[in-house]
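Annual report, structural modelling task.

Input specification for the magnesium ion complex:
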Amino acid sequence: QAKSLGKSAYVFYDESVEKQAQEKISLLAELKKAIDNNSLDFHLQGQFDQTDSPSGAELLCRWNSPIHGFVSPAVFIPLAEENGLAFELGNLAIDNAIRFVQILDEFGYNLRVAVNISPLHLMHPDFVTVLQEKIAASGLYPNRFELEVTESSFLGDEIRAGNIINELRKMGYKMAMDDFGTGYSSLSYIRKLDFDVIKIDRAFVTDLESDYKAQLLLQGIISICNELGVETVAEGIETQEQMDMLQRMGVTSFQGFYLGRPVPIEAFIDSLKKAE
Ligand code: C2E
Ligand code: MG
Ligand code: MG
Ligand code: MG
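The model returned the following structure:
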């Protein structure tokens, strides 16, 4: 009895693992296709300053697969990273960021576009060269682009990652530390490196009203950044109360569903027009 139970449990487990593996293989094949056919979409989510004026936008990748439907970036970005697609996907993001800055210019909006740069893209030997080629060909200034990197970029070769970030900053790109406060060494990186922008992770913002420690920590971080001349962007603002608290704390820019969801460029420009 015990033996047969054990066996069937094992078989059940085995099947579900196999199913998951097949699902992943199919997802990966579809993702490769989507990258090759240039069928990923890119949305923009607005960022606003202390006077509610738009100050920039974050580029966010969207994938609507014909087979799998909408797949979250939290799923397909790591999948791309694990399978050698970070460079290709990252370059698509840069191409779209350039295109969007050009479109914004055509409409008279001199906004900065923030691009998420995955660790393997940042560390790719051709990253800086290819980026510079693309930007030079566009005729745009590097300061129209903010490059968001996360703490995980430093897990491989900390010194090299730091050097690349410094190099990009010298070239004129705005460098941002994304998801600040979620890792283990956020503070040590703002001490060692010069970031233009710190993006305060949504987790801090979500807990703000109920968590006194989160308030104190955040107030400290914001004060330090203001003292250093580092911009702060609060992510994931969903309520007026969060907005009010962050405003009082001296955050420089605000981003979240309360202020605007990520939308296609056409809708983003419409929202800018409406806000005028
Ligand atoms: P992230 O860079 O921290 O982006 C912010 C995420 O928070 C986005 O999720 C955005 O849609 C979501 N968000 C914004 N405001 C709110 C809010 O008020 N409430 C809530 N609950 N969420 C909010 P998304 O688009 O699903 O992207 C998830 C992550 O995937 C991003 O986190 C980023 O790490 C990665 N990602 C997205 N697009 C790209 C890309 O083009 N390239 C790379 N390398 N990574 C990307
Ligand atoms: Mg980001
Ligand atoms: Mg973030
Ligand atoms: Mg994140």
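The pocket of C2E (ligand 1) is lined by residues 45, 59-61, 72-74, 77, 90, 93, 116, 118, 148, 178-179, 202, 235-238, 256-257, 262 (CB under 6 Å).
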